[in-house]
Amino acid sequence: MWATARWAPDCRPWPADRVTVRLVGGECVGYSDTAGQVFNSEPGQDRLRAVQRRIFAQNRAAEEVWRRSDHRRPYLTLVYLGSLTGNRTRADEESYVSEREELEGMATAQYALLKESAAADDAALLHIVVANAGRQMRHAGEAVRLLEGLARDDPTVLGVVGLVDSRASTASALRELNRVGLPVLAPTLSADRMDANSSLYLAMSAPNREQVRMVEAYARQVLRVGEAHVYWTTGEGSSLAEDLYVATLVDGLRERFGSRLTRLDEWRSGRRMTQECGYRGMLFFAGRWSEFDGFLRALKECGADPPRHLVADDSVNRYMANPGLRASAPGNLPVTYVSKAALATCAALRAAQARRDDARGSFLTWIGADDLLDPPRCRDGAGPPVGERVSLAYDAAMMVVRALESLAARLRHADTGRRWEPRSVNPVGVHAEVLRQNAAGGYPGVGGLVRYAPDSGEPVAKRLALLTVARVPDVAAAPVEVFACGVADGGPDPGCRPR
User: Fold this and answer.
1) 2 in a structural domain
2) C-alpha radius of gyration, the chain, whole number
3) Do 193 and 167 contact (CB within 8 A), yes or no?
4) 347 FRET partner, CA 20 to 30 A, in 37, 103, 411, 465?
5) What is the SS3 assignment for 157?
6) Who contacts 320 (Cβ-Cβ below 8 Å, separation ≥6)?
7) For residue 3, is it within any domain?
8) For residue 418, with 0-12 CB atoms within 10 Å meaning exposed, 13-18 middle and 19 or more buried, which class applies?
């Protein structure tokens, strides 16, 4: 059936395919698993469209491999739910870096499983549905209602990956997905206690209170400064009440720094920053990446007397991944920013491969393949970075895949030649299996060990790092890790320490 009477040339349901979309507030909201519906037709977003097409092509390949295996291999569907439309952008500006990177991570997991031997009946196959909830997840309620019908009709649907931003609309979507009974694995959501919205929620990144702990330790141990100035933003059309990421980050900074936090202000486009020229304390940007370009341009007015220690939150990764925006930044103002995936940079992955780390070495091989990401990552010589969120989304998808494979092995015992029956498992059971496996020592992710406490969906001692770029306009220079907290591969938490 047609999902709605309202459609556009780039937003129309296809009765013959798994495409259910509708125009909501001028945005194409819904889901697709086929190239008949690729989200976002805006100029400059070619890479976002390319990774969707790659996923849809791999969906067809996974279906064919499953058919040729006589349906013996375990088969699952994961939904990617994100904000794929609605941003204001220039024709030469990529405005959906986070979403594109998370899709690339899921595509890499899908690709790795397709490379398994044809005789590997115990190896799962991954099918991916791409879903759009609109700008800042504003239409997540509508998207989840559509996904509820998909999950009801398709027993292979076992979970959702993504959600991108920690906002009130995201929290509402989590509550709805919990009602539907779908687990959510969030690569980068980090507002404190997002897990309170769903008993089936698992974060892949450390919560904001851990980010605040690291920033304060860096200011004290490395910068050796006695005070800090903090500026926050929430993005166009949002507020501190709606933006849970910024709100919990600001609350944490206020609590952690106490009287050492001598300035805490909202920054808005057009505001001058001359009061920060030459500032010798820590100047911390606690806002959204979309305003960081303007924030840096405001500091450009300082000329030869910039603030001495500019540090930024992890949202700024999206700015750092955009060469077009970085070109206009001041060249004499180093930026240190939070990274949730410093273990999955090209340099770190090559070092891991050299010491025979199989998980990271295999990931490095996949992302450099000719027939997956465009462009391939970590080839010899200069090239694009991996991307902050690629490994985190890969880990999220593979954590569910390994849980399903474990359940399948127990259900079929020694008879792996039996056909796989998708209705023999359900999403809640797979979530329970993820936690059961995790209790044995955590999941060894490419981005670091993932461990959960029994009563929490937030990871314990998940690794975080601070990276420094000496000249922001120099996009060819790799950032340097200067500080880290949390566990990389196992053992007790080493705390926070300089690198």
Assistant:
1) no
2) 22
3) no
4) 103
5) strand
6) 326, 335, 337, 469, 472, 479
7) no
8) middle
Can you give the residue range of the structural domain that contains 53?
Answer: 19-206+388-450
Instruction: Name the DSSP letter for residue 484.
Output: E
Would you state the structure tokens that stand for residue 9, as one six-digit string? 């040339």
Q: Name 423's Cβ contacts closer than 8 Å, sequence gap at least 6.
A: 155
Length of the chain: 499
**Global pTM?**
0.95
pLDDT means over runs of 10, the chain (499 residues): 58 79 94 95 92 98 96 97 86 84 99 92 96 94 95 97 94 96 98 98 98 98 98 91 97 98 97 98 97 96 98 95 89 98 95 95 96 92 84 98 95 75 96 95 95 94 98 93 95 92
CB contact set of 36 (below 8 Å; sequence gap of 6+): 14, 17, 19
List the structure tokens of 306: 């910039």
Which phi and psi angles does 280 have, rounded to 5°? -100, -5
Same structural domain for residues 114 and 218? no
Question: How far apart, in whole angstroms, are the C-alpha atoms of residue 220 and residue 237?
Answer: 35
| Closest by Cα among 308, 286, 289 to 232 | 286
Please tell me the distance from the alpha carbon of residue 20 to that of residue 27, in angstroms, as a whole number: 13
β-partners of residue 282 are: 228, 309
Q: CATH number, domain at 494? A: 3.40.50.2300
Q: Tokens 């739910």 appear where? A: 81
CA 473 to centroid of chain Cα atoms? 24
Residue 482 phi/psi, 5° resolution? -120, -15
3-state secondary structure of 249: helix
Query: How far apart are the C-alpha atoms of 147 and 51, rounded to whole Å?
Result: 21
Kindly state the tokens that stand for 441: 């020592």
